[in-house]
Amino acid sequence: MRKRSNYKQPRKSKHSYNKPKEKKEFYTKENIFVSRMASILLLPKAEIVPLFSQRAKTTIRLNPLKGDVKKTKNSLIRKGYDLEQIPWEENTYFVLNKDKNEVSQSREYEEGKFYIQNLSSILASVLLNPQEGEKILDMCAAPGSKTTHLAALANNKAEIIANDSEISRVNSLNRVVDQFGVKNCKVTLSDGEDFGKKYPVSFDKVLLDAPCSGEGMIYMRGPKPLRFWSIQKVNRYSQIQRKLIESAFLTLKHGGTMIYSTCTLEPEENEGVVTYLLEKYPNARIEEIDLHPSIKHEKGITKWSGNKYHPEVKKTIRIIPSSEMMGFYIAKIFKE
Ligand SMILES: C[S@@+](CC[C@H](N)C(=O)[O-])C[C@H]1O[C@@H](n2cnc3c(N)ncnc32)[C@H](O)[C@@H]1O
To answer: What's the rounded Cα separation, in Å, for the pair 48 and 218?
Structure first.
């Protein structure tokens, strides 16, 4: 008797004959990032890496809450600071001949007499236009760049709640508030998503400078520039931002104004989040933003990658990354 062989002929699929070999294409993270940015900013791909490779100019905001700003300016000039005034914001200057590291070691900085802050971030507080006597919520406030600016713009006479959900960042926020002479400010550690329920219809102004995928801060000449960036992150943040914007809107008084800002360029984290709010709350209105001609920006976009956004988002703005301003998005929202 012939022994049965254990060998089994491989089964040939009818599809396996003459099938052309699939050509596998591999995309690096950089390829994906570049394609996305090119299609969001409507620029040729070749322009993306250079756009994200510009060194940011050192920008300082003199702090009127810590002494006379004229005296601070004069003492910096005496030390050889080459200051260029920003045309649309008083007390704000480029330092043309010093890097951030150097200015952060000066005595004036230690004493809180000036703050080092990118112009895009400065713009968000300027557009919120805080006034004396107002109740203001800074929902995601750490480390406190915008909190200190809001307090300065309102001459320390606004009542500010500066909140963050991370304990280590709240500690830095407390230090910054103290160092830069902010008064009438309560620092809280809480999830911003809960504010809408805890403090409904309570604030004249709200700043929601949301956690985001941070594309506006990417510097392509740095070491592993895309290590913190991923599409999963973009998707995850867009869900968190929806909850935060709804909560922020609920805390706003009728007739109040809020700023929604991110340092990212992704439509799903920007126009997508604003559209979500507009569709859910018919009393949310987008306000037109008037900018100084020197600010390079684009209007919000109403469709991207198969997604359609509310036509009103055209009134929102996207700051194009440059050496003067990091990539940023701002929407100004009014509650009827
Ligand atoms: C873009 S940063 C804020 C920067 C700050 N506004 C400034 O100008 O210095 C976003 C902040 O949101 C905080 N955050 C993240 N999720 C939050 C949440 N659910 N509630 C409150 N804060 C949150 C983060 O800890 C982070 O400090």
So the answer is: 11
Expressed in angstroms and rounded, the spacing between residue 65 Cα and the centre of ligand 1 is: 24
Residues pairing with 317 in the sheet: 299, 330
CA-atom Rg of the chain in angstroms: 24
Q: Is 142 in the pocket of ligand 1 (CB under 6 A)?
A: yes
30 within a domain of the structure (yes/no): no
C-alpha distance from residue 290 to each of 120, 188, 191, 299, 333 (Å): 14, 33, 32, 11, 14
CA of 39 to the centre of ligand 1 (A): 28
Rounded CA separation 208/247 (Å): 10
User: What sign has the CA pseudo-torsion 147, 159, 112, 152?
Assistant: positive
Asked, for residue 164, whether it belongs to a domain, the answer is yes
3-class DSSP state of 253: strand
Distance between CA 207 and CA 137 in Å, rounded? 6
Residue 279 DSSP code: H
For residue range 181-215, what is the model confidence (pLDDT) as tens digits? 999 999 999 999 999 999 999 999 999 999 999 99
Q: Count up the domains in the chain and report the number.
A: 1
Q: Which residue, by CA, sits nearest to atom 17 of ligand 1?
A: 165
Range of the domain at 252: 119-335
For the segment 27-39, the average pLDDT, to the nearest whole number, is 95
Mind listing the pLDDT tens digit for each residue in 91-106? 999 999 999 999 999 9
Q: Ligand 1: does its nearest atom lie under 6 Å from the Cβ of 165? A: yes
> Which spans in the chain are helix H?
29-41, 48-51, 69-78, 100-104, 107-110, 119-128, 145-153, 167-179, 195-198, 231-251, 271-280
238 in ligand 1 pocket by Cβ < 6 Å? no
Are 204 and 135 a contacting pair, CB within 8 Å? yes
Q: Say which CATH number the domain at 216 has.
A: 3.40.50.150
Instruction: Name the DSSP class of 301.
Output: -
Q: What is the DSSP secondary structure assignment for residue 304, as one 8-state letter?
A: E
- Domain assignment present for 95: no
Residue 222, domain member (yes or no): yes
